Amino acid sequence: MNAPIFAAEQVAKSFGQRKVLQTAGVWAHSGRITAVLGRNGTGKSTLLKIAVGQLRADRGVVIYKGDRSARPDLAALARNGLYYLPERGVLSRWFSVKTHLDAVASLAESDGIESAIEQCRLSALLERPASKLSGGERRRSEIGLVVARQPDCLLADEPLFDLSPTDTEVVSQALRHLAACGCAMVVTGHEVEALLQLADEVVWITAGTTHALGTPTVARAHDQFRREYLGGLFGA
């Protein structure tokens, strides 16, 4: 396997006396999806925020396309083909879905709008402002922006959160499409079965550190992961 296009290594972060991350890391390879799984409060979102410079790590380094930084700059990363999708989303409530798509495609000099509309089933939503979208429609529209942007790397925090089964499948298919086009991807979340079906490899975050578990099949068979995280979800 080629070297990852993106990696965060040896990341540590404390908030006061609370150590959230101690020796955490995550990576993304072109054309592959890495899922970061872990209980609430274990630092999944914190790790991604550090990776894009929204939080300063106590220790650690982020590497993107060979450039190393202790404090990345999100604007510079974006100009270099990285897209960060936070849990709370990126849509402006006053603008229509079409306006968002046009703006992203124009800034990125991309021709991915038609693909975004098709992949995320947005044709009936184009003239609606974001404030008139349901939660699932918002997420599909946000993923549509990613498809229109055609990034080299995507860091997506909880992209499947609180979605219906139908919206989960639409978003998952769009993410698979992005990976098939060569996008390197990191996704987080608690939708274990959907994320295990989506991912090419699994990273488990627990007790402040991360464990590379390998493919979803290997992860399902990992004794400690099953015992401490999956529990009875997939049987004994």
Can you describe what's shown?
There is one protein chain. The protein has 236 residues and is an alpha/beta fold. It has 2 domains: 1-72 and 200-236, P-loop containing nucleotide triphosphate hydrolases (Rossmann fold); 81-181, P-loop containing nucleotide triphosphate hydrolases (Rossmann fold, 3-Layer(aba) Sandwich), CATH 3.40.50. Helices cover 36% and strands 25% of the residues. It contains 9 helices and 10 strands. The chain has helices spanning 44-51, 74-79, 97-108, 113-119, 135-149, 165-180, 192-198, 216-220, 223-230; strands at residues 6-15, 18-28, 33-37, 59-64, 67-69, 82-85, 153-156, 184-188, 201-206, 209-214. A 6-stranded mixed sheet has the order 6-7-8-3-9-10, with helices on both faces. The protein has a 4-stranded antiparallel sheet with strand order 2-1-4-5, covered by helices on one side. β4 (59-64) and β5 form a beta hairpin. α4 (113-119) runs antiparallel to α5 and α5 (135-149) packs parallel to α6 (165-180). The chain is globular, with a radius of gyration of 17 Å. The two termini are 33 Å apart.
